[in-house]
Design brief:
The protein is of the alpha+beta class. The chain has one domain (4-148). The chain is built from 3 helices and 5 strands, in the order αααβββββ. β4 and β5 (133-142) form a beta hairpin.
Length: 151
């Protein structure tokens, strides 16, 4: 009987720590999932403006949803997501291909393939933790309609 309160205290500390670690894992997993889902939606869009809109819509739904809240992802909006465009020559290194909307682009699908890279930079503060961890996720997708990159 004498050991019972001490054991209860130690077990409660262990359980709280385990819940916090599960919350941290959930935050990282949710951020990676949101990044991959946003990249899939962006790649299927017909224009770059549509890709950005689709990325933000998906990111808002997932990061602002219950798993994002439990994972402690902040901010709970798509503010930490960034969409970048690259072109890949056959057998070469990726080249940045970000241009202003309405820019004059020479799309050459016989020499290049085009990709969107979705990057996410957030903070994750697990349940019952007094501090936050920096988190970064990145996902790449093929652009299905490269002729719309400049729109």
């Amino acid at each position: 009987m004498v050991e019972s309160p001490l054991a209860l205290f130690v077990m409660s500390l262990v359980i709280f720590f385990m819940i916090s670690m599960f919350s941290l894992l959930c935050g990282y997993a949710t951020l990676n999932f949101a990044c991959q889902a946003a990249a899939r939606e962006a790649g299927a869009s017909q224009t770059r403006t549509g890709a950005r809109t689709a990325m933000q819509r998906v990111a808002d739904q997932i990061v602002g949803g219950p798993m994002g809240v439990f994972g402690g992802i902040t901010p709970r909006t798509s503010a930490g997501f960034n969409l970048r465009t690259f072109r890949l020559p056959d057998g070469g290194n990726p080249e940045p291909f970000d241009v202003a909307p309405g820019g004059n682009l020479a799309i050459n699908q016989s020499l290049y393939s085009y990709t969107y890279v979705v990057e996410a930079n957030y903070s994750i503060q697990p349940v019952l933790f007094p501090f936050a961890f920096a988190a970064r996720a990145q996902s790449t997708c093929a652009v299905e309609h490269p002729e719309g990159i400049g729109l």
